[in-house]
User: Fold this.
Amino acid sequence: EVDWFSLASILFLLMFAPLIVYYFIMSCDQYQCSLIDPLIDLLTGNKHLSDIWNKTPTLTYRAASIYTLWVAFQMLLYLFIPDFCHKFLPGYVGGVQEGAVTPAGVVNKYEINGLQAWIITHVLWFANAYYFHWFSPTIIFDNWIPLLWCANVLGYAVSTFAVIKSYFFPTNAEDCKFTGNFFYDYMMGIEFNPRIGKWFDFKLFFNGRPGIVAWTLINLSYAAKQQELYGQVTNSMILVNVLQGIYVLDFFWNEAWYLKTIDICHDHFGWYLGWGDCVWLPYLYTLQGLYLVYHPVQLYTANAIGILMLGLIGYYIFRMTNHQKDLFRRTNGNCKIWGKKPEYIECSYMSVDGSKYYSKLMTSGFWGWARHFNYTGDLMGSLAYCLTCGFEHILPYFYIVYMTILLTHRCIRDEHRCFSKYGKDWKRYTAAVPYRLIPGIF
Assistant:
């Protein structure tokens, strides 16, 4: 059953999220990344909406060809080249891996080869840039708005197909969730793990490819454009490429671990993931690099080092917090966290069939500081990306605002689910670890 607040939020996102993406990208293209000037022009009558729209680049055959080849190439890497990186990279988990148990009791298998796809893609990118010269490294920036229309076509197409598929040929009917509200079902998804054939999993492919593989290529294209326009790549652009590149590499190095996260374990596949991964992620997560093409910022050395340290410390907290939880789960608490046996609260819960199960919630290490300290590290990294751009415009800071809202919402959603699951045991846990994100504050 869908409450009115959830329905209103979903209708707002369906109507305005595409406009938000367009507004941000248009502001850079026509107003040098100012978010205020377009509004001033419209309110004062200097321009009409039709004037702005008419200046916006349209869909082109070139952009459609580039995007089609890109998605097809990533599908080829995903489906037809089994992972070989796990055979020679110590500590990397790739190849065929099992996901979490679905609500219907199904355990899906996945071909984990995202790191391999990322490496192959980037080797070819640099080979072209320095040797083959088939296309300019600025190709993404030069076709950025026409590519936006292509990404929207794919995002809406795959989201609509997922809904139709759930009604007529679901992968597993028992894992479908119908609320009876079309807008909610379209937005949040009906099928839990829609698949075509044995290996093409919609969630895994669209969450990681083509958007996240493209993330670092997009930033490289921005850097190439900066070099073309100004004859140099600023240290701020290098910082954006390095810090966001670390995040992307971390995602693919831990792709098997990702199978146990909220996106795979709890979310159904709808417009939220389908369109979001095709459009929202590649266009709004890369705003810092786009901004720096229009406003090249050369940071003082001390400022650059400070931002780099903030990003690296944030990444360390994000990764080590997740590592501590993963180690605790894998060993059932028989491990050492910061040199000591971890403390925990044992919780019980009842399954749908009435069986009683037990879980352990760790209260040691970073998990003793705050209940979602991994999100805190993520937010520190997000802030570092934004700080590379200076303080002349607010556009680059959209990312930290968005991530704060997103992760705070996830905190509340996670905790609501845990309270429903564990009851009074969850209250014991929150008493032991009273803060959500920032120790002593929140």
Remarks:
- The two ends are 31 Å apart (CA to CA).
- The chain has 20 helices and six strands.
- The beta strands are 95-101, 107-112, 195-196, 200-201, 344-350, 356-362.
- The longest strand covers residues 95-101.
